[in-house]
Amino acid sequence: MSVFIAIIGLAFLILIHEAGHFFTARAVGMRPRRFYIGFPPAIAKTTRNGIEYGIGAIPLGGYVKIPGMHRPAPGDVDVYFGRALQQTPELVGPVQRLKRALAEDNEDAARTALRELEELGNGSESSQRGVQEISDGLATDAYWRQRTWRRVVVILAGPATNLILAVVLFSCLFLVGGGKATTTVGEVLPSRPAATIGLRPGDTILRVNGAPVTPPDISTRISGSKGKPVTIVVRRGSQVVRLGPVRPQPIEGAYRLGFVLRGEKLGVGASAWQSVKLTGIVTREIGKSLARLVRGEGRKEISSPVGITQTLNQTAQEGVQDYLWVLGLISLSLALLNLLPLLPLDGGHIAFSLIEGIRGRAVAREVYERVSAVGIVLVVLLFFIGLSNDIGRLGGS
After folding, report:
1. Cα gap 263→70, rounded to integer Å
2. CA atoms of 97 and 95, how far apart (whole Å)
3. 139 in Cβ contact with 74 (< 8 Å)
4. How far apart are CA 397 and CA 393, in angstroms?
5. Which of 70, 101, 299, 342 could be joined to 109 by an S-S link, Cβ 3.0–4.6 Å?
6. First-to-last C-alpha distance (Å) of the chain
C-alpha cells in the first residue's frame, strides 16, 4: 500500500507541474488543445471550448498539449503524413505543395494545401491528425507566435508551481510540527530501536550515555555512536527512567534510534519564514551537488525515479509528516532541475525564448533539434547513472 502512495505522490507532483503550464497558458491567451490526468490513450474524455479533457490509461502525472511549440517545417509533413501517403497515394500532390509552402513561409498556400488534404484524406485517422497538427502550428494562438514574455511565463509556470507547493508544504509542516526542536519526544517510529526499548511520546530526554543533553546534542550523540550501544535517561511524568542499551540503526545515512523530537509551536508568519529559509538552504545544496557533478564528483548522489519512489515508500511507512517533508523536497528538486538550460527541459525552452526575443527572430529549427539531441543524451545519461545507483542500493552494495 505504501508503494502505491509513493507512486501517487510522485504522479501528483508531475500533475501539478503540467497544471501550472495549462492554467497559465489559458490566462495569457493561449488555448491548449489537451489536458489529461495521466497519459494517453484516454479511458475517458470530453471536449469543451475546443480543449480535450481526459483521464489517461497511464496514471503517472499529467499531460498538456500546447499547439505550435515550433513553426511547422517541411520535415513535420513527412512525419505526420507518411502513413497516410501509403494508404492514399492521391495525397502526394497536396503533401508536396504543403512542404513547399512551409519552406517558403507561405501560410496562405499552406492552408490551401491543408484543405486539399482534408478533402482527399477520406476521413483517415492519420491524415486528419496530420492536418490538425499542422493547422494548430499555423494558428494565431500557436506558442511560437506569442510574445516573449508570454512564452517565458507559460513555461516557467510548471517549475514555479512545484516550488510554490514545496514552500506551502514546508510552511504547513512547520506550523503543525513546530520549528525549533525540544528535548521532548514527539513520535516513536514502529519497529525501530527506540520502540524496542520502550521510549514513548511525551518522554523528556535528560541524558544520552550518561551525559546531559540539549536538543542538538541528542542526534549528535546518537549518530556519533557509530552503531555502538547507547542508553538514554528520560523523565516520564514524575519518574526518571533509564532505557537501553540499544544499538542505533543506519537510517537515511546516519545512525538513529527512530524517534522524532517535538518542536516548539510556530505562528503562521514564523512558519512561512522558516519555509523560505529551508527552501534557500536546499536550493544552495542542490546547486553545490550540480557543481560537483560537473567536476566529475558526486555521482553517487544521483537518483532515478526508482530511488525517489523507494524513498517516498520508506517515509510513507514512517509517518505522514516524514512523507510530506520528502514530497516537498522532491517537488523543490523537480522545480530546480527543470530550470536547467537544457532542451527538452523547461529551462531550455525559457533560454531559447529569451534568445529569440533578443534576436527578434526564431532560432533555426535545426539548432533546436541539435541542442535537444544533446540535452536528451545528458538527461538519459543522468537517468541511467541514477538507476545504477538505485539498483546498487537495493542490492545492498
Report:
1. 51
2. 5
3. no
4. 6
5. 101
6. 26
Q: What percent of the chain has pLDDT over 90?
A: 32
For residue 47, the cross-strand partners are 52
Neighbours of 310 (CB within 10 A): 17
In three state form, how does the secondary structure of the chain look?
A: CHHHHHHHHHHHHHHHHHHHHHHHHHHCCCCCCEEEEEEEEEEEEEEECCEEEEEEEEEEEEEEECCCCCCCCHHHHHHHHHHHHHHCHHHHHHHHHHHHHHHCCCHHHHHHHHHHHHHHCCCCHHHHHHHHHHHHHHCCCCHHHCCHHHHHHHHHHHHHHHHHHHHHHHHHHHHHHCCCEEEEEEEECCCCHHHHCCCCCCCEEEEECCEECCHHHHHHHHHCCCCCCEEEEEEECCEEEEEEEECCEEECCEEECCEEEEECCCCHHHHHHHHHHHHHHHHHHHHHHHHHHHCCCCHHHCCCHHHHHHHHHHHHHHCHHHHHHHHHHHHHHHHHHHCCCCCCCHHHHHHHHHHHHHHCCCCCHHHHHHHHHHHHHHHHHHHHHHHHHHHHHHCCC
How many C-beta atoms lie closer than 10 Å to residue 180's C-beta?
13
Spatial contact of 206 and 233, defined as CB atoms under 8 Å apart:
yes
Cell triple for 379? 538527461
181-263 adopts what CATH topology? Pdz3 Domain (2.30.42)
Question: For residues 144 and 362, is the Cβ–Cβ distance under 8 A?
Answer: yes
Amino acid identity of residue 12, one-letter, is: F
User: What are the pLDDT digits (tens) for 100-144?
Assistant: 999 998 999 999 999 888 888 666 777 888 888 899 999 988 999
Q: Which residues of 33-53 are buried (b: 16+ CB within 10 A; e: fewer)?
A: bbbbbbbbebeeeeeeeeebe
Domain ranges (residues) in the chain: 74-141, 181-263, 268-394
Task: Assign 397 a pLDDT band (cuts: 50, 70, 90).
Answer: very low
Distance, in Å, from the CA atom of 189 to the CA atom of 170, rounded to the nearest integer, reads: 21
Q: Which residues contact 386 (CB under 8 A, 6 or more apart)?
A: 302, 303, 304, 306, 307
Phi and psi torsions of 240, nearest 5°: -110, 125
The mean per-residue pLDDT over the stretch 194-223 comes to 92
